């Protein structure tokens, strides 16, 4: 399943008293947030007039058209900015948009179901896949070629080879 609209940024809070916003950009280069085309809401119906003003503490500082004071900026916390997928560059063979991985079934090499990919995190040392099983138990797996040797987007699944550390934890539960 291909996602047609991708989240490329989210408002994390206000900056100052004149309506500027702090935005976490999910683009490869955060400064490219507005470079691909107009930012919209999830439906694509509302187009945001965005001007990038700078950067602070690893986040973009933007001015949103019509947002002129801190109260208006605070009210936008959590607002997500979307782009049409067609406006973004094609991924390379070994590259994926997070939205394409979220929702995939995670299975072992012998086909045993581990759960569903719920999120992807980057804690600084590389991406981690959050996989939750039917009981709601969550396990984080490093998103490396050794741990995730194959991804079948068309088939809606990826193969996970749980690291030894995960296997040891599993044995301790029994």
Distinct helical segment count: 3
Q: What is the fold-level CATH name, i.e. the topology of the largest domain?
A: Elongation Factor Tu (Ef-tu), domain 3
Spans where pLDDT lies below 50 across 5 or more residues: none
Gross geometry:
elongated
Determine the strand fraction and express it as a percent band: 35-45%
Secondary structure elements and pairings:
Elements: E1 5-15, E2 20-25, E3 39-40, E4 47-48, E5 50-56, E6 59-64, H1 70-75, E7 80-84, H2 98-101, E8 105-107, E9 113-122, E10 127-132, E11 138-142, E12 150-152, E13 157-159, H3 164-173
Parallel strand pairs: 8-13
Antiparallel strand pairs: 1-2, 1-7, 2-6, 3-4, 5-6, 8-9, 9-10, 10-11, 12-13
Structure, explained:
This protein has helices spanning 70-75, 98-101, 164-173, and strands spanning 5-15, 20-25, 39-40, 47-48, 50-56, 59-64, 80-84, 105-107, 113-122, 127-132, 138-142, 150-152, 157-159. With 174 residues, the chain is mainly beta. It has two domains: 5-86, RimM (Elongation Factor Tu (Ef-tu), domain 3), CATH 2.40.30.60; 98-173, PRC-barrel domain (SH3 type barrels). The strands form three sheets. Strands 11-10-9-8-13-12 form a six-stranded mixed β-sheet, with no helix packed on it. A hairpin with a 4-residue loop joins β12 (150-152) and β13. The chain is elongated. It starts with a strand and ends with a helix. The model has no long low-confidence stretch (mean pLDDT 90). It comes from Pacificispira spongiicola.
